Amino acid sequence: MRDGTWNPELPLPMTIREVRQETPAVKRFVLDGSLNAEPGQFVMVWLPGIDEKPFSLMNAQPVTLAVAEVGRFTRAMHRLGQGNRLWLRGPFGQGFTLEGRHLLLAAGGYGAAPLAFLARRAREEGRRVAVLVAARSRQHLLLVDEFRTLGCEVYTCTDDGSDGQPPRLAPQAVEELLTSLRPDALYACGPAGMLDALEALAREYHLPAQLSREAYMRCGIGVCGSCTCGDQLVCRDGPVFRIPG
Amino acid sequence: MAEQLSPDLRVNLCGVLLPNPLVLASGILGTTAELMERVAKNGAGAVTCKSCGPEPRAGHPNPTVLDWGPGLINAVGLANPGIDEAVEILRETRRRLQPLGVPLIASVFADSVKGFAEVTRRVCTVPPDLVELNISCPNVEAEFGRPFSLDPDAAAEVTRAARAVCDRPLLVKLSPNVTDVVAIGKAVVAAGADGLTAINTLGPGMVIDIESGWPILANRVGGISGPAIRPIAVRIVYDLWAHLRVPIIGTGGVTCGRDVIEMIMAGATAVGIGSAVIQDGPAVFSRIAAEVRDYLASHGYASLNEIRGLAHARRHMEP
Description:
The structure holds 2 protein chains of 2 kinds. Chain A is of the alpha/beta class. Chain A has helices at 72-78, 112-124, 144-149, 170-181, 192-204; strands at 12-21, 26-31, 42-47, 51-56, 59-60, 63-68, 85-92, 102-108, 128-135, 153-158, 185-189, 209-212, 228-229, 232-233, 240-243. Chain A starts with 11 loop residues before the first strand and ends with a strand. The mean pLDDT of chain A is 95. By secondary structure, chain B is α/β, with parallel strands linked by helices. Chain B is built from 11 helices and 14 strands. Chain B has helices spanning 33-41, 83-97, 113-123, 146-149, 152-165, 181-190, 230-244, 257-266, 277-280, 284-298, 310-315, and strands at 11-13, 16-18, 22-24, 46-48, 65-67, 72-74, 104-108, 130-134, 170-174, 195-198, 202-205, 222-225, 248-251, 270-273. Chain B has an 8-stranded parallel β-barrel, surrounded by 8 helices.
């Protein structure tokens, strides 16, 4: 049914081509299909009979997802292997826009996935990309090798200092990098608290920033109102929100 | 060339003045005060909140809403924070909407006559400009709606109970899934409804994934809305207006100015907009309002009153 007869609004089945363990909690799923998508956009992934949840794309060609096991749905996903299928709607939402020659990306926890997609695009266009990968401890640092392979300068920080650096939270590490690297723009994805702190930082430094936010979603297409963040709909106005700096 | 006056889009809905006839339908975007304010700022003539019931409800698991092409199918399952929190949200919404001159319609549901009366009494403390009884949600098996929407006596009983505690204009939202919608309309108007909202979603319907064989909605079935149901909504508004002559919010598949004009020619006073927000987001209201204004201006009408129910008059004209 890939001959153009598929209704683009209905879930599209894709077969899992490869599953790779990235961290103790996160698996990478490479699928056999591609989507025309921008970094930062998301898809709704449906497992028939189980649930449907939003995931940022780690890559669109082929579709690649980095999925942390955090609940019933992702536990079911983690049981899948090569040859199994999952169903996708999307891509949805506003993605990242590339701006500036020198980018700083800040990935908190699972937020590394959409930033890896962004880093690939930015490197393809010859932009300089520095990435801060932050997690609660060293074993949870996600996609560090991926960013290195893409030609990014990679920095890490952990809440407990197990990466050999002093223990610190992502906003503190980002502020240090802002001062030392003086990037043109900041891109971030991670927990809400981290993003709020980075938004404040971006305003303080008058630095354009694009933040990818997470929310509880039902429809994914801007009608149900489940994912509101103030007067904004994360599924439609976001998930990437732009701070002018 | 003589200067043309801009057509008047204002409508009087049960004594409440709307700046234009476009009403945000219940269940769409109406979850927070900030979001409802944004809808109003984007040109809605009135805003209906998502239906609130006696207790918090999580609703059904995902998938709950699907764009299947000619419309939506949904089984959100009356997800709502419960009347205690809903009253707080509605108070804040009212505070934000009042300076904009955009009325607030509170939509309520319950699983019993007593429940309907209690939720109605509580929302009237806000107070909203109008109250809409949602007796017709098709997605929640037998517990909500269906017992009240299918039978004229049950619909009248709920309306009477709500009427007794409601000092605001009262609308009842009718289901299209009945053999005689006029009988239900007559029953609720006789029981004290000031106006009607027609229609709620059609169905339930089902969409099946043919690769897996699974119905896509977790609830298996859901209500159908969007352009696919518009001709049915227009016919029902036409029938209700022919027999009742009460204010009607004509709702179902309206996506453009043409559809609004059609609904008003069928007899609607105001027009609900729901599924169409997937096209433009909240900006759909200003776009459609501009299209309605253009139609009226280009056809030489000064206000919507000049075309309301026009299709009924046409019925009696010689060809």
